[in-house]
Amino acid sequence: MHENTTIRSTSGPIRAFIGRTGLRLFGWRLEGKPLDTPKYVLACAPHSSNKDLFFMLCCTMALRIPATWMMKDSAFWWPVGVLWRKLGGVPINRRAAANVVQQIVDIFDSRDRLSLIIAPEGTRKDVKYWKLGFYWMALEAKVPIAIGHINYKDKIVGVSPPIPMTGDIETDFEALRAVFCEKTNAYPDYDKRQAERHLRRKRLRD
User: How far lies 194's CA from each of 87, 99, 136, in Å?
Assistant: First the structure.
C-alpha cells in the first residue's frame, strides 16, 4: 500500500455531515446502519459509472464507516492522486504479477480495524461474472463480507450487515447473492472454473 494512503480507524461527525449533505444535494436516500464489525470487506455493486465512488464514499461517510478503497493505479495521476489517497484510496497495479490478495491480507493482519471497499466486477463494463479477488481476500484474512448497493433508478445507496465466510464458495456466494438480489434485483455469478483453479493452487501451496 502506498505510504501516503490514509487508513482511518474512525470516522467522525464532520465527515458524517459531509456524507449526508452530499447525498441530499443529489436527491439520494441512505439505507443501512453503522457497522460495528472491526474488519470486513465491503463489496460494492453495480459498478457502472465513475459516479459510483462518489455516492459510496458519501454513504460510508454518512454511516461513519472509515472506508479504505481500491482503484486502478492509472486513476492516481497528479494532482488528483493526492486527493484519492487522502480519502483512503489504494492504487492497484493490475498489470503486475504481485499477489494483490496476499498484500491486502497482510494489511488486514496488521490493523485492528479496516473497512475495505472493492468493486467485485472489477470494471465499469457489463460483465457476466464477478471477479473473486474480494472473496479470497476476505476468506484468507478471516473477515466477513458486507454488501454495498447502488440503485440509480431509485437513487438509493446503502450497506448491509457483514456476512461471515465459511470457505464453501457455493454456500458463501449464495448468501451474498441473496442480499444483493434483495437490494438490486440482480443475481451476480462467478466463474466456477476460475474458482477451482484458485482452490487447486491453494491446496498445492498448503
Answer: 32, 16, 12
Could you state, in order of their start, the residue ranges of all structural domains in the chain? Answer: 23-31+38-205
DSSP assignment, residue 38? S
pTM: 0.87
Please state whether the peptide bond connecting residue 91 to the residue before it is cis, i.e. omega within 30 degrees of 0.
no
Which spans in 111-151 are helix H? 133-141
Q: Tens digits of per-residue pLDDT, 98-138?
A: 578 888 888 899 889 999 999 888 666 666 888 898 999 99
User: Three-class SS of residue 1?
Assistant: coil
Alpha helices in the chain (DSSP H): 13-25, 51-62, 80-86, 100-110, 133-141, 169-184, 192-205
Question: Which residues have C-beta within 8 Å of that of residue 196, sequence separation ≥ 6?
Answer: none
Q: Measured between alpha carbons, how far is residue 186 from residues 12, 16, 60, 144, 179 in Å?
A: 33, 29, 22, 21, 10
Tell me phi and psi for residue 90, to 5 degrees.
-115, 110
CA distance to 10, 26, 176, 194, per residue, from 58 (Å): 15, 11, 23, 33
Neighbours of 205 (CB within 10 A): 5
Q: Which three cell numbers stand for residue 56?
A: 459510496
Amino acid at 150: I
